[in-house]
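Appendix B. One record, verbatim.
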Amino acid sequence: MTLQAPCLKEDQPALKLGAVEAREEHPPKGSAPIHWRLLTTLPVTTVQEAIEKTQWHGQRWQIEVLHKTLKSGCHVEQRQLETAEPLRRVLMLDLMVAWRVLHLRKAARERPDASAESFLQEAEWTVLWRHFNRDATSAPRPPTLRQAARWIGQLGGFLARKSDGEPGPVVLWRGLQTLQEMTQAWILLNTCG
């Protein structure tokens, strides 16, 4: 299809769009079938290209959560930089932080029983374990990814009640920031004697 530019933008060329319709033929019991009608400026001439665009659309929620993390956790919109280059550098750091938050959230949900060693450095998981096991006489051991995410969430304000579900990106962001500060203090105290 072709969309004409608005009358106020007469010098703009028409926009050519392709359409992809995706229908779920066998939805899970009790769920309404997915029925998407997607418009794209990218070429869609084969079934494989249509599947690819549908898969991209399926990732839109992850992108929304990334943006929320950048805005609510990293406060990227509040940056008061005068030129684009410093903003680009800060944004690259913020994107790495946001990715780490989302990676922890996703890994803890998809591989809850995996060791937190796959995500946290030894000093980080040790500080986390000691903080939440203050009365323990045994040596610290790596928690599972799910337990680590819940503890990190608690550092960020997550209440961890039975009905609370799993921690979201904002409390994980705050919790990781707190964990980083705690870990730095722990390392300093242990190196200074």
